[in-house]
Every structure is written in C-alpha cells, then in structure tokens.
C-alpha cells in the first residue's frame, strides 16, 4: 500500500518535471525566434542604410558633374563656344 503511494508520487513528480522541461524548451524556442527576428530586422536596416548611402553618393556625383559643367562655361580662359550657325 505504501509502495503504491510512493510510486504515484514519483510519477506525479516526473510528470511535473517533464512539464517544466517542456515549458522551458518552449521559452527557449520563443527567445531564439525573437533573436532571429531581431537579427533579420538588423540585416534589413543595414541593407536599407547601404542603399541610401549608395543613392546619396550617386546624387552627389551627379551634382558634382553638373556644377563642373556649369563652371566650365564660366571659366574665363576656356575658349568661347563656337557660334551657332542657323541654316536657312
């Protein structure tokens, strides 16, 4: 009779332990999922920043070229543009 009681308690404890383990593993999974999502977001942010800086670089390059062209016309020691000949 006492043995049966002890066995019942043991199995009860085992059940509780396994339940706790299950919960722990569940929490671990959630944590790892969250970490994965965070790193994913970070990667996306990095990518966006890279693209932005790329665009900025292109823009500044275009602006530089434009200002160079403008400055070219203004330079006094540059030869004057050839006169436009209207045909007709």
Automatic annotation (TrEMBL):
Residues 77-88 have a biased composition (Pro residues). Residues 1-88 are annotated as: Disordered. Residues 1-69 have a biased composition (Basic and acidic residues). This is Uncharacterized protein. It comes from Petrolisthes cinctipes.
